Amino acid sequence: MNGSELIAQERERQIEAEGWTQDHDDEHSSGQMVGGARAYAKTAQMQVCGLVSSCNPPLSWEWDEEWWKPSPDPIRNLVKAGALIAAEIDRLQRAS
């Protein structure tokens, strides 16, 4: 699977398995999904550079700590970031 397919698959998983529906996403209108995406992307960047990332969520993580689930695989963290960005794009399009 290519990157966009992995992101689409993860977004579908978020909806189906986690229950993060459009209505739920619409409640996060203050940039939380962008912050979440940034947190996962930054973790992936640190991994690619060979730096150890913290198990604690970064400051850009605005949700409960229990939802911070980074992977040891930087690709997986980028996929999570991409899915959060896709969710935010969809939310912004619905809002306009």
Explain what you see.
With 96 residues, this protein is mainly α. It has one domain (3-95). 62% of the residues lie in helices and 0% in strands. The protein is built from four helices and no strands. The protein has helices spanning 3-18, 22-26, 32-48, 74-95. The radius of gyration is 13 Å and the shape is globular.
Quick synopsis:
This protein is an all-alpha fold and 96 residues long. It has helices at 3-18, 22-26, 32-48, 74-95.
Explain the layout of strands and helices.
Elements: H1 3-18, H2 22-26, H3 32-48, H4 74-95
Helix pairs in contact: 1-4, 3-4
Q: Helix coverage percent of residues?
A: 55-70%
Structural class of the helix and strand makeup?
A: mainly alpha
Strand content bin: under 5%
The secondary-structure element order is: HHHH
Number of domains: 1
SS element count, helices: 4
Radius of gyration equals: 13 Å
Which outline best applies?
globular
Largest sheet: none
For the residues shown, what is the average pLDDT? 90
Low-confidence runs? none
What are the defining features of this structure?
0% strand, 96 residues, mainly alpha, 62% helix
